[in-house]
Each structure stands twice: as C-alpha cells, then as structure tokens.
From TrEMBL:
PROSITE patterns named among the record's database cross-references: GTP_CYCLOHYDROL_1_1, GTP_CYCLOHYDROL_1_2
The keyword Zinc is assigned to this record: yes
Name of the protein: GTP cyclohydrolase 1
Taxonomic placement: Bacteria, Pseudomonadati, Pseudomonadota, Gammaproteobacteria, Oceanospirillales
Keyword Hydrolase among UniProt keywords: yes
Keyword list, A-Z: GTP-binding, Hydrolase, Metal-binding, Nucleotide-binding, One-carbon metabolism, Zinc
NCBIfam families membership: folE, PRK09347.1-2, PRK09347.1-3
Catalytic reactions on record: GTP + H2O = 7,8-dihydroneopterin 3'-triphosphate + formate + H(+)
Stated family: Belongs to the GTP cyclohydrolase I family.
Pathways per UniProt: Cofactor biosynthesis; 7,8-dihydroneopterin triphosphate biosynthesis; 7,8-dihydroneopterin triphosphate from GTP: step 1/1
SUPFAM superfamilies found in the cross-reference section: Tetrahydrobiopterin biosynthesis enzymes-like
The gene coding this protein: folE
Organism per entry: Allohahella marinimesophila
Amino acid sequence: MSDTLAGHYKSILELIGEDTSREGLRDTPARAAKAMQYLCKGYGDSLAEIVNNAIFESDTEEMVVVKDIELYSLCEHHLLPFIGRCHIAYIPNGKVLGLSKFARIVDMFARRAQIQENLTKEIAEAVEQVTGAYGVGVIIEAKHLCMMARGVEKQNSSMMSSVMLGSIRTNPATRTEFLTLVKMNK
Ligand SMILES: Nc1nc2c(ncn2[C@@H]2O[C@H](COP(=O)(O)OP(=O)(O)OP(=O)(O)O)[C@@H](O)[C@H]2O)c(=O)[nH]1
Ligand SMILES: [Zn+2]
C-alpha cells in the first residue's frame, strides 16, 4: 500500500513538471506517502480501542468541558489541511470518560478526509455513544488552507461549527453555560 501510494506521488510530481531523479526529490514519494498515511490514520481506528475501557463511575451531573483540543484534518474537497481547535462538553449520566480520550476521539475522526460539519457531528455522536451522557456539545473553530493558500485567498476567516445533543441542545441555560465556559480566559 505504501509503495503504491509512493508510486502515485511520483507520478504527481512528474505531472507537475518535476524531475523525480533530482537529489532533493529522491525520497519524496515515499515520504509523502508516509505523511499522507499519517494524516489519514483515523480510518484504522475503532472507538472501542481508542476508549480502552477508560470509563469511570461518577455521580457528578455537572457539565464537564474539555477545551482547546488542537485538530489537524484534511478537507475532502481539496485534500488540503484545515487546522483548529475543538471544544467538547458533556453532562455525565453516571459515567465519566478518561480525559485523554476526548483528544483521541477528535483525532480518530479528524485524521481522515473530512468536512468540518461532519467532523463536528461525528465527534459529538461518539462522545454521546461512549458516555451515555445527558447532553453533549462540540464546537470546532478552524482555518482551511483551501481558502487561504488558493481559491478566495482569505487569510483571516475561520469557520465555526457546533453540534449540541440531548440536554445541551434542549436546555438554553445549559447551552449558554457551555458557550460561556469555552469563551473564558480567551
Ligand atoms: N461547508 C464546508 N465547505 C468546505 C469545507 N472545506 C472546504 N469547503 C468548501 O468546498 C467548496 C468546494 O467548492 P467547488 O466550487 O466544488 O470547488 P472550488 O472551485 O475549488 O472552490 P473554491 O474554493 O471556491 O475555489 C468550497 O467552497 C470550499 O471552501 C468544509 O469543511 N465545510
Ligand atoms: Zn478545501
């Protein structure tokens, strides 16, 4: 698979007018293949393996927020990176999830070809599925290289997307609490 991918990168380099035998490019097809496989490694992950049973009993029913989780993803339209931060809130229902697992869930879905809206939804649904929480909220703020380095070339615009599920969706006070906690200390 790696060799096939490297072969395709070699063809791409030739098609853009490069000389693939020059010293600087000799290992580039193999490197690029490895990098692309890394950027897309989320396809190989499963939620159960990622979570690794790190779910703990707890009687807290107060909102937990994990914010500013960096994310690197690939826009599925141009295969260019979009880069940003993800904020996740949930209201536990008898169980809390190991802290690092939120970042692992973000990576599992970000490390694929994505659009931001679907990424946001997939993270929210995974957190809901794993925790059985009363409510889940996910916000992503990201900058898309396809809008910065090419196309409309807008350097300062960013995209915000959100998905609220359960009580965070239906209870306006809870939703406001999440938004307030995300904005704190910014
Ligand atoms: N909604 C959404 N759109 C995205 C995302 N990433 C990239 N896009 C958009 O996908 C669209 C693809 O539009 P097309 O007209 O098919 O492609 P294009 O000619 O390369 O578009 P331009 O970027 O406008 O030059 C563009 O408007 C991109 O900005 C994303 O995560 N969410
Ligand atoms: Zn794009």
